[in-house]
């Protein structure tokens, strides 16, 4: 008896649907793309129970004739490809002809449509249940198409039980509609959930206007504009100042020829651009558009059409990295936060001895003052940092200082606010850890450890690039016993360690000898320094590139060699520190992403004293 059999068509369709329809948001994505390809000017999305009970997408696009409406539910039936050559330069969002039959095979679907050029003819209604066509009939209908999907996965209970809560599924749909609303500001997008309007973004001319519509006034003020070009590749968009950080990547929107994508090349470039501006666990806000010839990108790399391949990946990576870094250097920024309650629990920093906020009782709120949270913004993990332990309303005690965005050096209200040491008068030192100073706008507090860390990092990075790192030989070589995995890693890193001012050599087995270190780290414990460098490299991706290795070495070396907290400084030393800080590219954040300077404006000081 034959063991290999051809699957029944209905079962094959359900399997195919599993590749395309993962959840209600997958249905919304496919239907939105069809509406955009149909040149719609307005698209309305309505969902019930997070899309599990009902999804309805209505557009005023080109519409279809009755014959096309029936044929659209056949597998591989499409109006967007004609020849094999077309597959190499796809200009539409949809192209395979798989979305509608896949959705129809796992739902109860109704299609109403009328072709725009056939005003004298009635529209058409097609009803399909579980992949079986139930009826086709004429219907009175205006221009465009409406597709209603009910009871998703009603005939695939194994898939239905893996769907999340209504709110979770709604959050995915809200993010998706936002993705396409940002990419197509010329189209009106609306989203309603259980009778409640969540999005109503009327057509506008620019992406900036669309960002304002969706995220509110305060959001755009905290972004910097991106513009760049390299050969045939162009990019534009917005990315956040370093203080705008999220705990998830949901605030990142990537588009290639206005197609929403997920791509490792783009993600890697963004992470590298921010690696010395924000903590490794944080994510910047990025809205990024890439434009390139259609034949320079392969969009047929994933069933859901969200993953792509660039013909020249290195060119795209370099363009994104260089453009974002250029924009970040052009704007000096400091975390804008408001201290709402008790001081957070502090954990000691292993290098500086300073306290860092721990999760759990952290009540620093990163919400811009002009942005008022609403259910849609909460679906995007907004505000910027969630407040643990419940919302704290109001400030009842003047001992709890309210730190507002305008108090911070480099805040959005100041525009380009580079730190200028010449305009600063040093007042003294606070707890032998912070330099207290003032300028014409108010009071400044500078963290001496991270300020020196930024100075040393940029000097070492520049010297490494120019092969001019100053070294300090040790009078007596220091031996270091490494775990086997670190000894293997050291063998790979040896050339870069030597380039960065270290002279390290094998001393038998897993032991090494340290003969010299960079001059800036001459007073550090060289054993701990080498161990921390290797530990940091272990945490990186397995495929380390040269730039990331050099950066990790420079960051760790600078942190070890920097002035510590609880260290008294003379007035001359503090003046030297501020003069050197003013010469750095990013004087407002240390290489780990922590803030260096806080500003308390005269207005805020007077307001808290009740004088205004």
Question: What can you see in these coordinates?
Answer:
- The chain has 17 helices and 28 strands.
- The chain is of the alpha+beta class and 612 residues long.
- It folds into 3 domains: 9-203, Heat Shock Protein 90 (2-Layer Sandwich), CATH 3.30.565; 206-417 and 602-612, Ribosomal Protein S5, domain 2; 420-587, Ribosomal Protein S8, Chain: A, domain 1 (2-Layer Sandwich), CATH 3.30.1370.
- The strands form 8 sheets. Strands 5-4-3-6-2-1-7-8 form an 8-stranded mixed β-sheet. It has a 5-stranded mixed β-sheet with strand order 9-10-15-12-13, with helices on both faces. It has a 4-stranded antiparallel β-sheet with strand order 22-23-24-28.
- Helix 14 (526-539) runs antiparallel to helix 15.
- The longest helix is centred in the first third of the chain and has 18 residues, at 166-183.
- The radius of gyration is 29 Å and the shape is elongated.
- It starts with 8 loop residues before the first helix and ends with a helix.
- 40% of the residues are buried.
- Residues 334-417 have low confidence and may be disordered.
Topology summary:
Blueprint: H1 9-20, H2 24-37, E1 42-48, E2 54-59, H3 66-71, H4 99-104, E3 108-114, E4 123-129, E5 132-139, E6 144-150, H5 157-160, H6 166-183, E7 188-193, E8 196-201, H7 207-215, H8 217-221, E9 223-230, E10 233-240, E11 245-246, E12 252-256, E13 259-260, H9 264-273, E14 283-284, E15 286-291, E16 297-298, E17 309-310, H10 313-329, E18 338-339, E19 346-348, E20 355-357, E21 364-365, H11 375-378, E22 425-430, E23 434-439, E24 442-447, H12 448-465, E25 471-481, H13 484-499, E26 503-506, E27 511-518, H14 526-539, H15 546-561, H16 571-582, E28 597-601, H17 602-608
Parallel strand pairs: 1-7, 12-15
Antiparallel strand pairs: 1-2, 2-6, 3-4, 3-6, 4-5, 7-8, 9-10, 10-15, 11-14, 12-13, 16-17, 18-21, 19-20, 22-23, 23-24, 24-28, 25-27, 26-27
Helix pairs in contact: 2-6, 6-7, 9-10, 12-15, 12-16, 14-15
């Amino acid at each position: 008896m034959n063991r290999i059999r051809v699957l029944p068509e209905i079962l094959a369709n359900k399997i195919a649907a599993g590749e395309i329809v993962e959840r209600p948001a997958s249905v919304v994505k496919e239907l939105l793309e069809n509406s955009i390809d149909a040149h719609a000017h307005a698209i309305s999305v309505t969902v019930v129970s997070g899309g599990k009970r009902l999804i309805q997408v209505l557009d005023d696009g080109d519409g279809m004739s009755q014959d096309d409406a029936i044929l659209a539910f056949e597998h591989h039936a499409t109006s967007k490809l004609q020849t094999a050559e077309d597959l190499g330069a796809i200009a539409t969002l949809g192209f395979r002809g798989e979305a509608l039959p896949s959705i129809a095979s796992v739902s109860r679907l109704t299609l109403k449509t009328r072709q725009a050029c056939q005003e004298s003819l009635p529209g058409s209604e097609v009803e399909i249940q579980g992949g079986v066509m139930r009826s086709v009939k004429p219907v009175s209908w205006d221009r465009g198409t409406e597709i209603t999907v009910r009871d998703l996965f009603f005939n695939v209970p194994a898939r239905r039980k893996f769907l999340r809560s209504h709110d979770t599924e709604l959050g995915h749909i809200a993010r998706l509609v936002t993705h396409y609303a940002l990419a197509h500001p010329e189209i009106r997008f609306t989203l309603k959930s259980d009778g409640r309007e969540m999005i109503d973004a009327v057509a506008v001319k620019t992406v900036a206007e669309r960002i304002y519509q969706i995220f509110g006034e305060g959001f755009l003020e905290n972004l910097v504009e991106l513009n760049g070009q390299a050969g045939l590749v162009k990019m534009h968009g917005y990315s956040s100042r370093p203080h705008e950080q999220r705990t998830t990547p949901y605030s990142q929107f990537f588009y290639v020829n206005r197609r929403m994508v997920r791509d490792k090349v783009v993600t890697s470039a963004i992470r590298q651009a921010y690696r010395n501006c924000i903590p490794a666990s944080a994510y910047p806000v990025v809205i990024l558009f890439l434009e390139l010839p259609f034949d320079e990108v392969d969009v047929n790399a994933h069933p859901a059409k969200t993953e792509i391949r660039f013909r020249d990946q290195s060119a795209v990576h370099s363009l994104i990295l260089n453009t974002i870094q250029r924009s970040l250097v052009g704007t000096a920024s400091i975390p804008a936060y408001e201290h709402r309650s008790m001081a957070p629990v502090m954990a000691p920093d292993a290098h500086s001895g300073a306290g860092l906020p721990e999760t759990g009782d952290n009540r620093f709120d990163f919400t811009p003052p002009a942005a008022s949270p609403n259910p849609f913004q909460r679906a995007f993990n907004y505000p910027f940092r969630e407040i643990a332990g419940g919302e704290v309303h109001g400030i009842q005690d003047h001992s709890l200082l309210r730190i507002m965005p305008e108090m911070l050096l480099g805040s959005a209200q100041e525009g380009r606010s580079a730190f200028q040491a010449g305009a600063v008068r040093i007042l003294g030192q606070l707890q032998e850890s912070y330099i207290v100073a003032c300028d014409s706008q108010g009071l400044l507090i500078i963290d001496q450890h991270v300020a020196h860390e930024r100075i040393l990092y940029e000097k070492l990075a520049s010297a490494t690039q120019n092969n001019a790192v100053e070294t300090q030989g040790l009078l007596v070589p220091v031996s270091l016993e490494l775990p086997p995995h670190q000894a293997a890693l050291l063998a790979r890193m040896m050339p870069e360690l030597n380039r960065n001012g270290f002279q390290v050599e094998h001393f038998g087995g897993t032991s090494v000898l340290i003969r010299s270190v960079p001059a800036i780290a001459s007073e550090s414990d060289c054993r701990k320094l080498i161990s921390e460098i290797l530990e940091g490299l272990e945490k990186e991706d397995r495929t380390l590139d040269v730039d990331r290795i050099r950066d990790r070495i420079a960051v760790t070396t600078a942190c070890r060699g920097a002035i510590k907290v609880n260290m008294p400084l003379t007035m001359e030393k503090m003046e030297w520190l501020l003069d050197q800080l003013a010469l750095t590219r990013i004087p407002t954040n240390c290489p780990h992403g922590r803030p260096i300077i806080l500003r308390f404006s005269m207005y805020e000081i007077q307001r808290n004293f009740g004088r205004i």
